[in-house]
């Protein structure tokens, strides 16, 4: 892709509009990302409610504790949707046709993530609304709810970048979907169901402590349970930034190789 042509901002806006519309016009992708996490929230809040009786558990509402998990599950769906949509563009030849235009690679990557950002925003607002309606609380108040939305969108963008990189590397929607169970393993081997300080001193706690997903969850949870915890939020945003940079770097390298091959 040549550096000549329309300004970068216009290229990003054009591709971002396409990405957003393509995402919103596929209810089969959007609806599961909204319904599935909320259903699991209800199941977990009901089945694990007795965990609040454990000495040292940080809240009397397991629903509030589990609400953070919905954001991570939503980010996983965002990763899947971003990768699947781009893989479809590759399989249908759209990316090859786009390569013949003066479109910049950066515009395609940023524009592609626009749909992820919109989906992440819708997810975050819905999860908060459902949680509050069901009886959860946000210790940090209205400001904390806004930061919770921002962090939810940011994590969705970071995971979306990983899905984009996978799509560009493989060119296959099926291969991208294979990431979904892998990410569920990361979620399971984290502090998703219990705080890390209540996991004992065995191998599971060691893995959960090394697992970056734990710190993303704890950043989200801090706003729900603790209030304003600068360290937890800094870790969550910092790890999200690392994942985003890694995803975009891998996607840029994969796109360069794919365009050379085509």
Topology:
Blueprint: H1 8-24, H2 27-47, H3 62-91, H4 94-99, H5 105-134, H6 141-170, H7 173-177, H8 179-188, H9 203-210, H10 212-226, H11 230-261
Helix pairs in contact: 1-5, 2-3, 2-5, 3-5, 3-6, 3-8, 3-10, 5-6, 6-10, 6-11, 10-11
How would you summarize this macromolecular structure in one to three sentences?
The chain is mostly helical and 262 residues long. The protein has helices spanning 8-24, 27-47, 62-91, 94-99, 105-134, 141-170, 173-177, 179-188, 203-210, 212-226, 230-261.
Which descriptors apply to this entry?
single chain; 262 residues; mainly alpha; 11 helices; 78% helix; elongated
Structural account:
With 262 residues, the protein is an all-alpha fold. It has eleven helices and no strands. Helix 1 (8-24) packs across helix 5 (105-134) and helix 3 packs across helix 10. The protein is elongated.
* Net shape: elongated
Strand content: under 5%
Number of helices: 11
Secondary structure tally: strands: 0
Q: Give Rg in angstroms.
A: 19 Å
Report, as a whole number of angstroms, the end-to-end distance.
Answer: 12 Å
Please tell me the overall pLDDT: 88
Largest sheet: none
Topology as a string of helices (H) and strands (E): HHHHHHHHHHH
Low-pLDDT runs: none
Percent helix: over 70%
